[in-house]
């Protein structure tokens, strides 16, 4: 959602009046601490260097989680905003659901069909309920949910933890219970909850009431917090939502995508099953970046355990867009059950643009991306020191874009030539029993 300057002064009076009610209604839902057993055994294997823990610091992994049973792996699906913005209607949502099925994207895990801003009428009805826009959603949201569910998909909707949404539709603040109940009655499966017109009330106070309201409906609803990373949500949102935006909105440019990747990287230690850092939806297929740049965008989002929410028109994708979005080997990295966010482990060369990003996977494997952010081709090296392996360990290397095994006995480092703004994505499988002395 585009941020808009807020006119908080207009709402100050009502904010003060309602503040007491707000605080009183903010009942906390219990969250449980847990450490993934798989992580423990992983760290004890002799193939990893003693610095493994500091390279892939997981000290905050799974500390607090919303226990609604969702987001065991990052959410996958589609969202209307990046391509359609406000130009949505029930036809385009249904056709998108059809296309997710016909392209095979749904079978790969892209199951959430998420309607962003602009679905609702600009005013509530006489019962103070949200109403779907009667021109663009004449059949209502429930009919769209029924359509989507009949295809085995899930429907997401959008509201705002403020007086209005960014496109000035009614927001849900102070009416969380009513709106959550309405969403549940429609069969909604996912809520993206935005941050416009927030009355200057801290996010930590505005986001928990909707968590509790969603929980109180008894319907399991994915809760996607979108406060643009303003109050460092990684530090608190794990107990509130299933994912939290760490940055401002992405746009369809190389500058935006790389900037957001770096900002999201900062919070890697906080991600884990149940709650994910969200660097915003994918721009793959929207035309503002090259094939190589989109491939890097998709690879890094997958490695960072970001939500994979397609942001293009899936009814009309080029062969290249389809190739990127349907790369099952890359999706498998994103959906790996270990759920540790990969991160930037080395940046060398001019402006640090020769980058190595890596992360642990289940089964003692590693995902490794060599990312060339320079403007000419270069050779990038991942040394075993950098990625946390003992130098004598033999590794089999699989290229996840070429879909082939490159070698079964890489030792001490692995290098490849990478084109400008492109990346290489590898699955490293170390062999503990075959190390070179
Ligand atoms: C629905 O939205 C799509 C995408 O913006 C547009 O092409 C189409 O004309 C709209 N259909 C109707 C009936 O408004
Ligand atoms: C509500 O919260 C409780 C406690 O965290 C959890 O066990 C339950 O599954 C939640 N229910 C829903 C519908 O999200
Ligand atoms: C896109 O994002 C970049 C980097 O954050 C920013 O400099 C630029 O102004 C944005 N462009 C648009 C059109 O919003
Ligand atoms: C399909 O996408 C192409 C760009 O890739 C565009 O030129 C064309 O207008 C689109 N067609 C429809 C029907 O939207
Ligand atoms: C980062 O990579 C460069 C180039 O391969 C290497 O010289 C340097 O030692 C690496 N730094 C770390 C901390 O691994």
UniProtKB/TrEMBL annotation:
Task: Give the first-level EC class, as a single word.
Answer: hydrolase
Which GO molecular-function terms appear in the entry?
alpha-galactosidase activity
**Top-level taxonomic group:** Eukaryota
Q: Which residues form a coiled coil?
A: none
For this protein, what reaction is catalysed?
Answer: Hydrolysis of terminal, non-reducing alpha-D-galactose residues in alpha-D-galactosides, including galactose oligosaccharides, galactomannans and galactolipids
SUPFAM superfamilies this protein is in?
Answer: (Trans)glycosidases, Glycosyl hydrolase domain
Q: Does the keyword Ubl conjugation apply?
A: no
EC? 3.2.1.22
- Signal peptide segment: 1-26
Q: What UniProt keywords are attached to this protein's entry?
A: Disulfide bond, Glycosidase, Hydrolase, Signal
- State one Pfam family annotation: Melibiase_C
What range(s) does the Alpha galactosidase C-terminal domain occupy? 352-427
Stated family: Belongs to the glycosyl hydrolase 27 family.
Q: Which PANTHER family match?
A: ALPHA-GALACTOSIDASE MEL1 (PTHR11452:SF75), ALPHA-GALACTOSIDASE/ALPHA-N-ACETYLGALACTOSAMINIDASE (PTHR11452)
> What is the protein name for this chain?
Alpha-galactosidase
Its source organism is: Stylosanthes scabra
């Amino acid at each position: 959602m585009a941020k808009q300057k807020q006119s908080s002064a207009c709402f100050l009076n009502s904010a003060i009046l309602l503040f007491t009610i707000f605080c009183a209604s903010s009942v906390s839902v219990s969250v449980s601490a847990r450490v993934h057993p798989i992580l423990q055994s992983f760290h004890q294997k002799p193939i990893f260097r003693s610095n493994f823990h500091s390279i892939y610091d997981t000290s905050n992994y799974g500390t607090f989680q919303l226990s609604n049973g969702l987001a065991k792996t990052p959410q996958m699906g589609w969202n209307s905003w990046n391509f359609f913005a406000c130009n949505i209607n029930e036809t385009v949502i249904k056709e998108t659901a059809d296309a997710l099925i016909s392209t095979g994207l749904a079978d790969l895990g892209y199951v959430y069909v998420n309607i962003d801003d602009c679905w609702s009428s600009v005013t509530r009805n006489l019962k103070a309920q949200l109403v779907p826009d009667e021109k663009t959603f004449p059949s209502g949201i429930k009919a769209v949910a029924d359509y989507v569910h009949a295809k085995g998909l899930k429907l997401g909707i959008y509201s705002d933890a403020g007086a209005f949404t960014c496109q000035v539709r009614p927001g849900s603040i102070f009416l969380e219970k009513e709106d959550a109940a309405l969403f549940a009655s429609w069969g909604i499966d996912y809520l993206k909850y935005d941050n416009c017109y927030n009355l200057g009330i801290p996010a930590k106070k505005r986001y928990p009431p909707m968590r509790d309201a969603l929980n109180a409906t008894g319907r399991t609803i994915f809760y996607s917090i979108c406060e643009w990373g303003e109050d460092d949500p990684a530090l608190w949102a794990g107990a509130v939502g299933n994912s939290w935006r760490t940055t401002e909105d992405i746009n369809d440019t190389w500058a935006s995508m790389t900037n957001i990747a770096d900002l999201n990287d900062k919070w890697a230690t906080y991600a884990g099953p149940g709650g994910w850092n969200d660097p915003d939806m994918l721009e793959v297929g929207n035309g503002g970046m090259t094939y190589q740049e989109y491939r890097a965008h998709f690879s890094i989002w997958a490695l960072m355990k970001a939500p994979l929410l397609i942001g293009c028109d899936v009814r009309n994708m080029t062969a290249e867009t389809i190739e990127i979005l349907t790369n099952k080997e890359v999706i498998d990295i994103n959906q790996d059950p270990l759920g540790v966010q990969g991160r930037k482990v080395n940046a060398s060369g001019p402006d640090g643009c020769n980058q190595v990003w890596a992360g642990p996977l289940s089964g003692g494997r590693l995902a490794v991306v060599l990312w060339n952010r320079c403007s000419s081709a270069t050779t990038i090296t991942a040394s075993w020191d950098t990625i946390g392996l003992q130098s004598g360990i033999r590794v089999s290397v699989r290229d996840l874009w070429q879909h082939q095994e490159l070698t079964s006995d890489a030792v001490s480092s692995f290098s490849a030539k990478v084109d400008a703004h492109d990346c290489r994505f590898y699955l490293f499988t170390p062999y503990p029993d075959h190390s070179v002395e």
